[in-house]
Here is the input.
Amino acid sequence: MKTKKYFCSIIALLTGISVSAQVLISTTAGSPHINALLDIKNPLKGALLTKANMISNFPLYNAAADDFFDDSAPLEGALLYNREDKQYYKYDGTVWVPALQLGGFHNPFETRRKAGGSESWTCVSLLGVNTCDLTQLFGNNNTKVIPVSNADSRPQLLVNNLNLATGTDYVTIPAAGLYHISGVVGFSGTSILGLGQDVSYWVNLDVSYDNGISWSTLAFKETLQYGGIFIDIGQAGNKSASVSSTVTLPANSRIRLAASVSTSSLISTYSNSTDHKDTFINVQKLK
Here is the structure.
């Protein structure tokens, strides 16, 4: 026996009276759950919602938008199934969020900050010694701290769900815990007469436990790029280096992102990208 209870809704339609009603759709007799406006009960069948073949078919899709979707507060809470990646999406008023997104930027325990400015490296080789060669690098002569922006932008996936305090070039961990921290720096620049030598991009994650008086390195990583024999002309963000670390931190620890360039080219000039997709620091609290 199929039981459908629409009595209150039908009365409301016929009389124009505003009423509060619950709806039960079930193959067996019973009543809807006390807290449910709509209760669907069937051990063998489920509800089918609207489907789309791909992301570009979603409502409000806009390829020109930073997050590919226009904003619409009235649509918040909508659900849609995507055949392309076999999962449901929910609309939060600004973007469609995949149900299986793990560790993403909608995580309530995550903060992402982009670069607040650009640092530059000018390297010149004189008498066989380059101002940005490896020996100078280990002397920290060209290590520069990347400025950090406190701007929030959901379309650009810049969120501060951890409520981190943001300084000029660092973020402050508000509570003790286990964190996964990652940093990415996108570089652009030009090298002349590299003579086939590699260009090294170094990225550091540094920590301070004394309010910035002293700093130590949490993690660092080198990314190599073939410098070319004569001229290597780069494009913004196409040379990137990343580093990450999982670490237990006390409250009020400061984290910063630093970068260096190492090259033996005759003349080189590089700078970090300030685009939110190229240079950023990401902090996720695990426990």
